[in-house]
């Protein structure tokens, strides 16, 4: 196959930061994706509708000329969030979800929730108003092994949450384990999951074997090969519960390459090319359109996009950096290239 055309996709999990960094990275997403679910973990976090609308306007101002791209805003759930906040957000057309970060679990999660059960009244309100909950599915307790934190979150939080709030739509973000895949497969149709390119492409050997490679450090952390295979099977299965979410996270290189490097992989520069590589290697290119373009839109009850993008078999080398951001697989080659000029 020399070319592959599909409905313009959506990125259902994206970090674009703010200021100069936003202006650097947003064009990479907008050249491929029609929409993106924008994460709210800025400093300070985006916790109110008013803050989200200010952030949305900043994003709109950074979209390249003559490009159609829609940011889908989310709010950061905190212990200070109120039931009234939930109702207000659910009624606003530009707010599409709340994001639950366990306190201390990942980048800019200090304002997150320390006790999930303490915010059950908020989950009840979200269920009532039918607004999705997006979860970073890891416990943050230091005594829990970092490779076990996703499974522990399922056992300690998600199982009870889905029993108590059966009508709450939940996205289990960036799943990384066989156990997470099984949980989503067995859960109701109201439970979905996003899968990143890095967790489909790599296992923990990539991060750790032969020396620590900070630009492959992300949270949840890369896992064993058996878990990567479970994710690959889920993504290419055609199961509508699993859909594209890059979790692309730009960090300046000096913040990654230090004694306490931050978590996150930057993949927006070539997200669809990376996913195309994965799906082609699995002999499942015919499943990519559903995963990338249909299932996420359906979960969020959005109309499917009508535009198209085309990927061509064209070898190209990933740049060493984009300004001060080191991209995923820097310096390596990819076999697919998005070729139709969106700008």
SS field, number of helical segments: 12
Shape: globular
Please give the radius of gyration in angstroms. Answer: 19 Å
Strand order of the largest sheet: 2-3-4-5-6-7-8-9
Share of helix, binned? 25-40%
Mean pLDDT across all residues, rounded?
95
Name the beta content range: 15-25%
Number of strands: 11
Described by strand count, sense and barrel closure, the largest sheet is: 8 strands, parallel
How far do the termini sit from each other?
A: 25 Å
Briefly summarize what is shown.
The chain is of the alpha/beta class and 343 residues long. It is built from twelve helices and eleven strands.
Explain how this protein is built.
The protein has helices at 19-30, 49-62, 83-91, 120-129, 149-164, 178-186, 197-201, 204-208, 225-235, 253-256, 271-281, 288-299, and strands at residues 3-7, 10-14, 35-38, 70-76, 95-100, 133-135, 170-172, 191-195, 242-244, 308-317, 333-338. It has 343 residues and is an alpha/beta fold. The chain is globular, with a radius of gyration of 19 Å. The two termini are 25 Å apart. The model has no long low-confidence stretch (mean pLDDT 95).
